[in-house]
What does this fold into?
Amino acid sequence: MSQLTKIISFAFITVSILGGCASYKPPTVSLTQPEIGSVTTKGVGEKLLMQGTGQMVPQLTVSEDQAIGEYTLSKGQYTFSAENVVRVKFMRGDREIYLMKADNSICVDKVNDSHCGVAKYTIDTVFGSRSGKTFQQTLLYNGKIGNKVTLAYREFAGNSVRPASSNEVTYDLSESMILGYKGVRIEVIKATNADITYKVLSGFE
It folds into this structure.
């Protein structure tokens, strides 16, 4: 977890869960992942670099199905939706759950004794947006054939790919181990057809 994520996550837990009537508003941030200067390994189809502007949105994660009163709290990730002085609302698809501020218990769908109980969960933050007003640029690793590696470029506005901005580029590692695209500079340390280990030198311009 990056330092920025830790700070925002701590602020959410402190203000929203313990702070009574304080209201949480996800801040808009600019983010580059992995961080410049870091060394990372990614597999085929995974993002080598993501850079964008959006919000750090709280997410509640349940690692396993759990009985809550007469109902089951299904495992999965639930994204922050709203809050009031009493509870914080998270959603996963059409399923609503509520985190009660008084005792940190979870209520499934409705707030009453038969729907509420103690549960195991974690709260973190993810890069996204409640309003859908995000812009992201990404480079993905598409594999290696011979001494050539292929990267795919994608732009996202909200949750949709911008087709006209998608592109695929191939690089010959015998010419250089530094890959460049739209200001991005990546130093390849090791590449196979399964994964790539690299250092991020710079992000998108």
